[in-house]
Amino acid sequence: MSNQLPNKFSLTKKITDLLFILSFFILIFGTGYKLGEYHANQKKIERPTYNIINIENKAAEKNLDFSLFWDTWEKVEQKFIDKKKLDPKKMFYGAIKGMVSSLDDPYTFFLTPEENKQSKDDLQGKFEGIGAQLGMKDNRVIVVAPLKNSPAEKAGVKAGDFINKVDGQPTKGWSLTYAVSKIRGPKGTKVKLTLEREGKEIEVEITRAQINVPSIELSYEKNIAILKVNQFGENTIDEWDKAVFEIKEKWMKKEVKGMVLDLRDNPGGYLEGAVYLASEFLPMGKIVVRQESKTITNKEYKVIRQGELLDIPLVVLVNKGSASASEILAGALRDHKRAKLIGEKTFGKGSVQEALDLKEGAGLHVTVAKWILPNGDWINSKGIDPEIKVENQVKEGNTPTRSDDKQLDKALEILLK
């Protein structure tokens, strides 16, 4: 027993020393950790409170390393000076826009939910504002005409009124586009305009509303029907049918001698609308346009209905603002020698886009085909040259008026011969 006592004491001492050393290291480690945590907190950048979810990792299937994308995203979050501008939804949409724009096709683009809604409203001929057509005269913003039954007309706005101020802001130096953007706005909101009429200023407050803009405008001059097509939207065919019914009645009664189809400044729209309108003037079975693609089936669009205006003398007006579906219509009528084209060379858009709805109301317009005129022309970036070239000369800083319209004058001259 006596031989074991010194050993027990020695063992106990060793254990005590080991525990002391271990406690010392734990203390040092804990202090260092807390110190490091303190310094880290001083430099810590708060990450926005949102989660990023990848439902499918398709990038991996394409052998694409997305670490650079997320590394850039993280660096922007950490380093960018204005944290209030770090909107993950905007960054997300911006990334998609960048991806789509890398295709270098101006007609293939991504639309945010707000932009997609606006695009659809435009094709329906709807927008929210005061309902007045604006222009420029002597570099000043002027009311060309208030729309019928619009808030502008009800508030007493008249054609020829200069707009000197919008909500107290002088309009001197404003572009037409900027003026429109300041006057338009959500329905139910108000805008205050300071108008100048016959040298006197008038102040009017107008409550904005939803405005419906017609696709079709019909008028008459010198016994000639003038049918203007503003775009090929959702309501175009219905509005077209009503106008055609009226023109046909007058043509049958010999109250009109011919017709001007005005496609100037028509940016296009639905291809089917162009085919439908062309069918009003062309015999059954005639080709209106060919569609060629590597992603969808090639197709010929032909006249498949009996037109109502097959024999009325016809002239078509075009200019550099005539694009896409309006070029299809004008080109088909020219190729089948159904009408003479008057004006300026058209824009030159020879591709077909498919409008796709995506999640959360977003949208994608993607080029899926090119279209070819009946004679085989692909007019992309080339446009269509009218047979009779007439250019309207308008003084810089002014909006064209009827007295400036030499193109329409020429059309009437030809039809009245």
Short description:
This protein is an alpha+beta fold and 417 residues long.
How can the largest sheet be summarized?
6 strands, mixed
Q: Please give the radius of gyration in angstroms.
A: 34 Å
Please report the distance between the alpha carbons of the first and last residues. 141 Å
CATH architecture title of the domain at 216-415: Alpha-Beta Complex
CATH level 1 name of the domain at 216-415: Alpha Beta
Task: Based on Cα principal axes, name the global outline.
Answer: globular
Please tally the β strands and state the result: 19
Tell me the fraction of residues in β-strands, as a range. Answer: 15-25%
Bin the helical content.
25-40%
Helix tally? 11
Would you list the SSEs in sequence order as H and E? HHHHEHEEEHEEHEEEEEHEHEEEHEEEEH
Low-confidence stretches: 1-9, 38-47
Q: Mean pLDDT score, rounded?
A: 87
Q: Kindly name the structural category.
A: alpha+beta
Describe the structure.
The chain is an alpha+beta fold. Among the domains are: 126-212, PDZ domain (Pdz3 Domain, Roll); 216-415, 2-enoyl-CoA Hydratase, Chain A, domain 1, CATH 3.90.226.10. 33% of the residues lie in helices and 24% in strands. It is built from 11 helices and 19 strands. The strands form 5 sheets. Strands 10-11-12-15-16-19 form a 6-stranded mixed beta sheet, sandwiched between helices. Strands 1, 13, 14, 17 and 18 form a 5-stranded antiparallel beta sheet that branches. Helix 10 (325-335) links the parallel strand 15 and strand 16. Helix 9 (271-278) runs parallel beside helix 10 (325-335). The longest helix is centred in the N-terminal third of the chain and has 39 residues, at 5-43. It is globular and about 75 Å long. The N and C termini lie far apart (141 Å). 25% of the residues are buried.
